[in-house]
């Protein structure tokens, strides 16, 4: 009998007990990771799939990213699928330190969708591109049968240039790094959910969808050696921190009382049994920087409109590599796990 090489064994399908795609596969958590690791990567070959790939071109480097948007509903307080698509792709490029330049956009339209709605989305998309300082340069339109879609789906791809001397990647997180966040968390997810579920609050919760390239530029202008940037979208802060901890094999400790969770978000999550750390954001970033440079970077973030509510929330530690823990107000600790699927499907 031939010996099996278990160390190099790759399962061709996700490891959860389901023979078909479920909503959790699109949630940015453990099930999404399994789908990529055990189905897509074996099919594609020895490559690395990231939100934004940094590639050599001539004597320089470019960042390239693509994303799809299926948010339901298409319009929500603070935004729409149109500006969400632009900002999401711009932010993926920015998280590699790139200056976003060009975008493509593809519309997948369901037969029967009102042209007035398509027009609103197109105008929002164009306005968001202008605000982010990027140009829409190519695109496509497809129509599917009535009942085969859900109004409008979008796909956007983006290209940007990466400055010399900038290397930002999750592998660079190191023990001693300070962990910063640019502002309140969980706002986008609750804004979408409030419309979808008819929830009412004392004040309207508006999505935080916004371009972050300007904020990143201000951070890099300090000269600090920014190690990691990540926009905590699907799966929220919990998914992003766990991905970074596992990739860099460092431990991460956050202080619960330092997490900027608005009262409306906390109340909605308490009511619905959700964890704010797993709720999507669309206009916030996490930054890992050397502790000695943290105050300077934090000051630059707070001086920019997109980072006015920035906080230091934690530290990278050599203990418990690959694990994220929170220090509670009572002095104890709890593990922050990687989400399995998605608390709120169709959120972006």
TrEMBL record:
Residues 51-162 form the PurM-like N-terminal domain. GO terms for biological process: protein maturation. InterPro entries: HypE, PurM-like_C_dom, PurM-like_C_sf, PurM-like_N, PurM-like_N_sf. Residues 175-319 form the PurM-like C-terminal domain. It comes from the Bacteria. Belongs to the HypE family. PANTHER family: CARBAMOYL DEHYDRATASE HYPE, HYDROGENASE ISOENZYMES FORMATION PROTEIN HYPE. This is Hydrogenase expression/formation protein HypE. It comes from Paractinoplanes rishiriensis.
